[in-house]
Design a protein that fits this description.
The protein has 19 helices and no strands. The chain is an all-alpha fold. It folds into two domains: 24-213, MFS general substrate transporter like domains (Growth Hormone, Chain: A, Up-down Bundle), CATH 1.20.1250; 227-444, Growth Hormone, Chain: A (Up-down Bundle), CATH 1.20.1250. Helix 2 packs antiparallel against helix 3 (58-87) and helix 2 (25-54) runs parallel beside helix 6 (152-181). The longest helix has 32 residues, at 242-273.
Length: 481
């Protein structure tokens, strides 16, 4: 019986491998690159503060260097979306990785020589942040060029799981390196991770993934994007599209109230109750929940109402966050954070898959750039606001306040038809641009891209969605949260 069960399980795994996204060589390369790059990013996140603080730079210098990194990153996300649509996601990612590889290597040399000052670190941090801003939109739009529409849900789940795994490995590796040999080797590891990511991108196939796309281009049947649309920026699309306005408002409100929870309120709560060890355990449970959520999201490819399911998943996550201080100690808080991480990243995976399937390919970079700008752009205001409220009210009271406000943002989104219908209507990909003034339906159609849903059952295979990248690893929502 055991042998039969083992053979059956092995056959199922083999079939899943052959038919799933991991059967695609370019996707495997992308996943390896994302895993290593994310681990390297967290080495950088550990090494930079330690470098500044251990050389008597102080928190003021650290804040200034982080601002030099964060401001260009946020400002250049819209430009990154435009370049992604013009150059292609792979090319934009490759260029950003090469530039950051060189700059972080320079930073490693400075750290080895203990050269720490704002004139030296600030410009480097600014250009590294700019590279990150250019990278973010392209990294969130590359999957549709590698996978078939039916593989996007599983592909997003696997890709995000790799990122979550990197976020678990990176801090441990970075902390061990910094503690043992200092910041310079940790920066060197980050530089090497960018090099490996760039290599994985360079090895990807240059051919379009979809045979339908090749045929459409060769026989002239594809509709080329209008030059006027090609010139529109992310904020031009926002002004002209009601659907994008609704998603932007929900994203901003949700992240404005929820962004500071992980970086301000949670550390303040743990500092007063559980200590440093307890705080580390809480973050581990949060990360583990996020990993489980992305894997669950990989199995949501046939949702009929993806936006509604994603929003309800976010509401569940905020309910769990409300309960963190009130569940009787560290074990209860850890359980609530596990649920929060799982439901947040389940919703994120669902949302991104829907965006990949139902957004016209020639504007996908700008659409995702707008959502990422709303997500990252609210972070500074969120942590500042959270700091003031936690100072006056205490972290215990702040948790339910933030959870209720964020949950209401998603419930408010569900009152809007444009939000509820995301992933249900207009399988030709024109949904997010519906009502765009001055452009007809033919102009808005995707260029040389197969329909989002399989022709056999367009209504049964709506769009699942993908996760939003957050400022921290805790779980910020993208176009929904």
């Amino acid at each position: 019986m055991t042998a039969v069960s083992s053979r059956t399980a092995w056959r199922r795994m083999s079939a899943a491998w052959r038919s799933g996204p991991l059967a695609v060589r370019s996707f495997r390369l992308l996943t390896v690159g994302q895993l290593t790059s994310t681990a390297g990013d967290y080495c950088y996140a550990v090494a930079l503060p330690w470098l500044v603080l251990s050389t008597h730079g102080g928190p003021v210098l650290l804040g200034a260097v982080l601002a030099c990194y964060g401001v260009p990153r946020t400002l250049l996300i819209p430009l990154g979306g435009l370049l992604t649509d013009k150059m292609g996601a792979r090319t934009a990612m490759l260029a950003a990785d090469i530039v950051r590889c060189v700059l972080v290597a320079v930073l490693a040399l400075l750290a080895a020589r203990h050269i720490v000052s704002l004139p030296t670190l600030g410009p480097l941090a600014a250009v590294i942040g700019a590279g990150e801003g250019l990278y973010i939109p392209s990294s969130s739009t590359i999957l549709p060029s590698l996978l078939e529409p039916s593989q996007l849900a599983a592909g997003n789940g696997v890709s995000l799981a790799a990122i979550r795994a990197g976020s678990l490995l990176g801090p441990a590796l970075g902390g061990a390196l910094v503690a043992a040999v200092g910041s310079a080797p940790a920066f060197a590891v980050d530089s090497g991770s960018f090099a490996l990511s760039a290599l994985s991108l360079a090895l990807m196939s240059r051919r379009p993934r979809h045979p339908e796309s090749v045929r459409a281009e060769s026989d002239g049947s594809a509709t080329a994007p209008d030059d006027a649309i090609s010139r529109l920026g992310a904020f031009d699309l926002l002004r002209r599209s009601r659907a994008m306005q609704v998603f932007a408002v929900v994203t901003i409100v949700a992240n404005l109230t929820g962004g500071g929870l992980a970086d301000v309120a949670l550390p303040a709560l743990a500092h007063g109750r559980y200590g440093a060890g307890g705080y580390g355990a809480l973050l581990a449970c949060l990360a583990a929940g996020g990993l489980i959520g992305t894997l669950l999201g990989a199995r949501t490819g046939n949702l009929r109402q993806p936006a509604i399911v994603a929003a309800l998943s976010y509401v569940l996550s905020e309910t769990a966050m409300c309960l963190v201080p009130y569940l009787g100690g560290e074990a209860g808080a850890a359980a609530a954070l596990f649920v929060y991480g799982a439901s947040t990243w389940l919703g994120n995976t669902i949302f991104f898959t829907a965006a990949h399937r139902w957004t016209p390919s020639h504007v996908l970079g700008r659409v995702m750039a707008l959502m990422m700008t709303c997500t990252f752009g609210t972070y500074s205001a969120s942590v500042a606001l959270t700091g003031v409220l936690v100072h006056h009210l205490g972290p215990t009271v702040f948790f339910p306040i933030a959870g209720v406000v964020t949950g209401l943002a998603f419930l408010g989104g569900l009152t809007q038809k444009e939000y509820r219908d995301f992933g249900i209507v207009q399988p030709d990909g024109t949904y997010l641009l519906a009502g765009l003034k001055g452009f007809d339906r033919a102009t808005l159609a995707p260029a040389a891209v197969p329909t989002a849903a399989p022709a056999a059952a367009p209504a049964a295979d709506p769009a699942t969605s993908d996760p939003a990248t957050s400022e921290t690893d805790a779980g910020t929502h993208t176009a929904s949260r």
